[in-house]
Amino acid sequence: MRIVHILQGKANPETLNGVNKVVHWMATYQVRQGHDVEVWGLAASMTPPPHPREYTLRLFPMTRLRVTLGQEIKAALSRLEPDTWVHFHSAFIPEFPAISQFLKKHGFCFGITPHGGYARGLFRKNRLRKRFYVAIREARYLRDATWIQAIGASEIQDILRLAPRADVILIPNCQEPFFARTVPVPANAKRPLIGYCGRLATQHKGLDYLIDGFATYKAEGGAGELWLIGDGEDRAWLERRALESGAMAHVRFLGIKHGEEKLNLIASLDAFVHCSRWDVLPTACLEAAALGKPLLVSRETNLGEYVEQGGAGLVLDETSAAGVVRALERLQQLYENSQLQKIGENSRLLVESEFRWEKSAKRFVDAIAASGSGV
């Protein structure tokens, strides 16, 4: 089967952008399963990223207006072989509707993975502008898609709210397994050592709940320490929040980390936390689980049922600072009773049983075949 994945970016798995990671691994496993796969990246720079890859990566410059297509991508589209499946990744990318119109006109089928881009929470900011944009640009694009992939169960309704007749297929994000690793922890680290990794986006990722909840937990005698790996538009605000709450002495902002350095930091944690207000299925949680870390998640991550059924950690009873406090107190009890190691093993087994790229790559291809597309 011939498949072209299109995204804004370069499918670099070492970025904080989860879309890049997902496209890289989905394409990789589809190649390993015998398919002819290309990734087309819309980018400001034509310098390819250094990461090794098994698929063909082609980069195309973005035009100044963005709603029109450059000559390079027009030429590539005109050379697509019949029965090629084209798949778009993310939402609110101005070029995508224009590309989809070309595909529709020339008889190509295409699919879309919004990667949570239509979540209700994202419409809180610039709501009227986004709704207007959807109405004039993306409504037809969504209607014309043969099927649309939801990554987390909560995303299905977000998609159907904008495209009521869409064929939505649930295919979760997955994770490469990791070899077990033992990493020394700084002698002065306070245990249990709790960590977050990802974009420092307060509203989306619930990081105000995390900082405020952690501060209360410490004020009430909690013994742990909090590490935040990553960067983003809200870092300065979160640092002020930690300082004002009195927790800054026990919170470390470590900045962006990549590769082995990032994985070693996660591996040194006692538990990994993600208390999103909305999400689809965070890739950072799957990385932590693959490293054998217990998870502490909100239900909005779409991981709650998996975590509960697999005994892989704790689920917030309430997505709030108070919910974080109660979860951290319970986590400390588990740490003091030497129970976190077993929970971490359950977390690793959860990834191996439920979140393998082989499974999702095959389900993706099966969905294309079931739609009557591809060869």
Fold blueprint:
Layout: E1 2-8, H1 18-32, E2 36-43, E3 56-61, H2 71-78, E4 85-89, H3 95-105, E5 110-113, H4 127-144, E6 147-150, H5 155-162, E7 168-170, E8 193-197, H6 202-205, H7 207-219, E9 225-229, H8 235-244, E10 251-255, H9 259-267, E11 271-274, H10 283-290, E12 295-297, H11 304-310, E13 313-315, H12 321-336, H13 340-354, H14 357-370
Parallel strand pairs: 1-2, 1-4, 2-3, 4-5, 5-6, 6-7, 8-9, 8-11, 9-10, 11-12, 12-13
Helix pairs in contact: 1-14, 3-4, 7-12, 10-13
Describe the structure.
With 375 residues, the chain is of the alpha/beta class. The protein has 2 domains: 2-174 and 356-370, Glycogen Phosphorylase B (Rossmann fold), CATH 3.40.50.2000; 193-354, 3-Layer(aba) Sandwich (Rossmann fold). It has helices at residues 18-32, 71-78, 95-105, 127-144, 155-162, 202-205, 207-219, 235-244, 259-267, 283-290, 304-310, 321-336, 340-354, 357-370; strands at 2-8, 36-43, 56-61, 85-89, 110-113, 147-150, 168-170, 193-197, 225-229, 251-255, 271-274, 295-297, 313-315. Helix 4 (127-144) links the parallel strand 5 (110-113) and strand 6 (147-150). Helix 3 packs parallel to helix 4 (127-144) and helix 7 (207-219) packs across helix 12. It starts with a strand and ends in a 5-residue tail after the last helix.
